[in-house]
Amino acid sequence: MQATHRPYGCREASSPPSGPLAPDVTRATTFAYPTAEQLRAVGEGELPGEFYPRYGHPAGRRFEAKVATLEGADGAVSFASGMAALHAIFCGLLRAGDAIAVSNYVYGGVEALVSTDLPRFGIEVRRFDPFDPGSVTRAIDGAVKLVHVETPTNPLCRVVDLKRIVDAARRCGALVSVDATFLPPPLQRPLDHGADLAMHSATKILGGHSDVLAGVVSSRHELLERLEAFRRRTGAILAPDPAWLLVRSLATLELRARQAAENALKLARFLDGLRASGGKVARVHYPGLPHHPDHDIARVYMKAFGFVLAFEVAGGLTEAIRVYDRFRVIARAVSLGGVETLASIPLHTSHAMMPPDERRRAGIADGLIRLSVGIEPYESLESDLAEAMTP
Fold this sequence. Notes:
The protein is α/β, with parallel strands linked by helices.
């Protein structure tokens, strides 16, 4: 039976604030009703109400509704992590015998999932270079049911021309999913450019305070119903407390994202100045710089150039470690999107499992440092970088 009341959050209609501005969180794992008929009807979705939190809960639906509104989607389904969200997209929408085309430029956890697990379940995985039109055409044909890309990419901040990917997918009737973790709405909205699903590791800038683990997918109802059903079967639902924290964070999302992007652009220009003057920087990767290979594409798809940048230290890994260990303001940590600036060495973290020849082909130098730029006073960040690179 088709549920009358959807178990996930739907795009909100604009209305004046009403009720508590900081909503309560319900942690109950079961709910009582006066009669057998009422319990049955709530469980079937015929009446509004809470049944069992694996089927959805108020805090989760509130978060989902806010994300859907930001993305301009019908609704959204949230998960316990970003990888759980991607697992649902891949395994909830595909079946044995289907083919998926996956960009060569994806997060390491995604790489492990598509190379190790999808083939075990009979899903054919095809790889392609999203920046090579010929590669896209060769990988996507009538057998492909889903095309997955990440934009901007980790860690070199490449920006995919989504229209090209969507056009290729449409020719064979494939869906397009986009991991947009590196740039949140409203600064980037893949659905506006024809993508079918927009996914975020909400652990990152949607949460924004390094205190929550979550994932979320925005889309249209026909796909969300399948994702929610898969979530219900597999149990990867976001819990009430982190959902409440995410609702708190979304109120400042655009403010944080724009301030972090402003800091990142200034830092990219500072580092590029060191490169131009013969300093310890060999190369800077940031789409806001005119010499970035995707600068013009970024201007089409992004309202700001993002809060992540990467730079190569002249002298390779040894010199990169020396610079890295001298940071005093910038934290040495994995992850990204918090209010604090974080630095990581991809060779040691996100791309540690990638074979050296593949890393080189991907353009990831051993001496590369990735910065997830926060909202600290800009001067303190520039000073920290300058001092760390002093001979």
